[in-house]
Specification:
- A two-stranded parallel sheet has the order 1-2. It has a two-stranded antiparallel sheet with strand order 3-4.
- Helix 11 packs across helix 16 (315-330), helix 14 packs antiparallel against helix 16 and helix 19 packs antiparallel against helix 20 (400-413).
- It has helices spanning 2-12, 34-42, 59-65, 68-71, 84-105, 115-125, 129-139, 146-156, 165-178, 187-199, 206-213, 220-224, 246-252, 267-285, 305-312, 315-330, 338-351, 353-362, 367-382, 400-413, and strands at residues 16-20, 49-53, 231-232, 242-243.
- With 414 residues, it is mainly alpha-helical.
- The chain is 56% helix and 3% strand.
Length: 414
C-alpha cells in the first residue's frame, strides 16, 4: 500500500477514484479485515484519492469499517436498504437494455420480449442483479434461439416464498436444460470437471483440467460448454475457466439448495479428486533437473529461465506442485480417505521429493514446501496415522509440532 499506491499518488497529486470489488472474496483471516485496517492508517495521506469498495456485509468487513481511523473518513451504503421499487426499476432497465442489444445482433426478435414476459422476469429476480445477469447469459445462447431459451426458462421455473429461492430455481433450470441430453453415465465426468473449476486454487484451462483428471483435452470443452452461461469460458482450451458469480459456487456446493443430485458438487469428494490428480501427475512427470539447468548455477544467473520453465514444466504440473496441499485441507479429516492418500503421498516424498523442490525453486516458491509439509503433518495427526508412514525421514527431537516444522524447514533450506 505504501510503495505501490500511497507514495506515487502522493507525489503526483492526482485526483482519482480507485474501485476494489468483492472485498468479501479476499482470503482474510483477521476478525476485522486487515485490508481495511491498512486503509484506515494510510488513506488520509492521499486526500485527493477516493476508494470505492464493495463486498458482502460479513462480520470481519463490518467490523473493519468500524475501526476508529476508518469510521471517521468512510460512508457505508447498504444495498439492502435501497427502496425495492428503485432496485426493481434498475433491474427492469437492465433487462430492457440487454434485450435491445440482443435484437440488434440476432434476427427475428421484433417486439420481443412481451411485457408479460418482462414482468415475470423482473418479479422472479426479486431484487437480485445476479439473477438478471445469469438470465441474459442463458438466453443469449448459440445452441438455441433467444425466444426458445426464454420460453424454456419461464416454463421451468416457479417463484418461491423463501429468500433466494428464485436464484436457486434459475441455476437448477439452467443445469437441467444444459445437461438434458447427457447420458446419466456421463454425469460423474461432468461433475468432476465442474468440481475442478469450482475448487481449483487458481483458475485452470480446459487443457490443464484434462491433464489433472486424466482426460483427453478435447473431452473437456464439450462438458463445460452447455453450462457456459454460468461460467467465464472461452472455446480456447488454453484460456482459464472460472465461475461467473460466487453465488453459483455457493448454490452447487450446498445440498440443501442444489437438490438435484446430478449436479451437486461435494467439496470433500472433489478436493480428494483434485488431490489425487495432483499427486498422480507429480509422480508421473517429476524428474531430476527438469529445466536442464547447468550444475552449480543459481536460478538468477539463468537468462532464459522463464523459457526453460515454459518448455519443460506444463502449467498443470506447476499447479500440482504448488497447490496439492490445499486440496488435502479440503478433504474430510476422517480416516476413511487415508488408505487412498497415504501410500501415494509416501511414494511421492520418498522418490520425487527433491524433484518437487526443484520445481518450486525455479518458480521462486520453495517456501511452499514448508507449508505443504506442515499441512500433511497436521492431516496425519488428525487421522492418527504415524508420521513415519508418510515421511521417509524424520528428526526425533523436541515436541511434535517442533519436530514437524523443524524437519520440513531443514530439508527445504538444505
Amino acid at each position: 500500500m505504501k510503495r505501490l499506491i500511497v507514495q506515487h499518488l502522493k507525489q503526483s497529486g492526482i485526483s482519482t477514484i480507485i474501485i476494489i470489488d468483492a472485498l468479501d472474496e479476499c482470503e482474510d483471516e483477521d476478525s476485522a479485515s486487515a485490508i481495511l485496517s491498512v486503509f484506515g492508517r494510510l488513506v488520509s495521506k492521499i486526500p485527493k484519492v477516493k476508494f470505492f469498495l464493495t463486498g458482502r456485509p460479513e462480520p470481519r468487513i463490518s467490523e473493519g469499517f468500524r475501526l476508529p481511523l476508518l469510521a471517521k473518513m468512510s460512508d457505508m451504503f447498504v444495498l439492502h436498504d435501497v427502496e425495492r421499487d428503485q432496485v426493481d426499476s434498475d433491474i427492469r432497465l437492465f433487462f430492457r437494455t440487454s434485450f435491445l442489444e440482443l435484437t440488434t445482433r440476432r434476427s427475428g426478435l421484433d417486439n420481443w420480449p412481451a411485457d408479460e414476459q418482462l414482468n415475470l422476469l423482473c418479479g422472479r429476480a426479486a431484487g437480485l442483479f445476479v439473477y438478471a445477469a445469469a438470465t441474459i447469459r442463458f438466453i443469449d445462447n448459440n445452441k438455441r434461439g433467444p425466444k426458445e431459451q426464454l420460453d424454456l426458462l419461464l416454463e421451468s421455473q416457479r417463484v418461491g416464498a423463501r429468500e433466494g429461492e428464485a436464484l436457486d430455481a434459475l441455476y437448477t433450470s439452467i443445469l437441467q436444460e444444459a445437461f438434458s441430453d447427457d447420458d446419466p453415465e456421463d454425469d460423474a465426468k461432468t461433475r468432476s470437471v465442474l468440481g475442478v473449476v469450482i475448487f481449483a486454487v487458481n483458475p485452470l484451462s480446459p487443457s490443464d483440467i484434462a491433464i489433472l483428471l486424466g482426460y483427453d483435452t478435447e473431452d473437456v470443452p464439450p462438458l463445460l460448454s452447455p453450462a457456459k452461461s454460468l461460467l467465464v469460458f472461452q472455446e480456447d482450451p488454453s484460456h482459464p475457466v472460472r465461475v461467473f458469480h460466487k453465488s453459483f459456487l455457493d448454490f452447487i456446493t450446498d445440498p440443501t439448495r442444489c437438490t438435484d443430485k446430478r449436479f451437486y458438487i461435494s467439496p470433500p469428494v472433489h478436493h480428494l479428486q483434485l488431490l489425487m490428480g495432483c499427486l498422480g501427475l507429480m509422480d508421473q512427470k517429476l524428474a531430476k533437473n527438469m529445466c536442464c539447468l547447468p550444475d552449480g548455477v543459481a536460478n538468477s544467473d539463468i537468462s532464459n529461465l522463464e523459457e526453460r520453465i515454459e518448455e519443460w514444466i506444463v502449467p498443470a504440473l506447476r499447479y500440482a506442485c504448488m497447490s496439492w496441499h490445499a486440496h488435502l485441507i479440503g478433504v474430510d479429516t476422517i480416516p476413511a480417505h487415508a488408505p487412498e492418500i497415504t501410500p501415494t503421498l509416501h511414494l511421492l516424498l520418498e522418490k520425487k521429493f527433491l524433484f518437487w523442490l526443484e520445481v518450486l525453486s525455479v518458480h521462486s516458491a520453495a517456501r511452499n514446501a514448508v507449508e505443504a509439509l506442515q499441512v500433511a503433518a497436521d492431516w496425519l495427526e488428525v487421522c492418527r496415522i504415524p508420521m513415519l508412514d508418510v515421511f521417509p525421514v524424520f528428526t526425533q527431537t523436541g515436541s511434535r509440532n517442533h519436530q514437524r516444522l523443524t524437519w520440513s524447514t531443514t530439508v527445504v533450506v538444505s
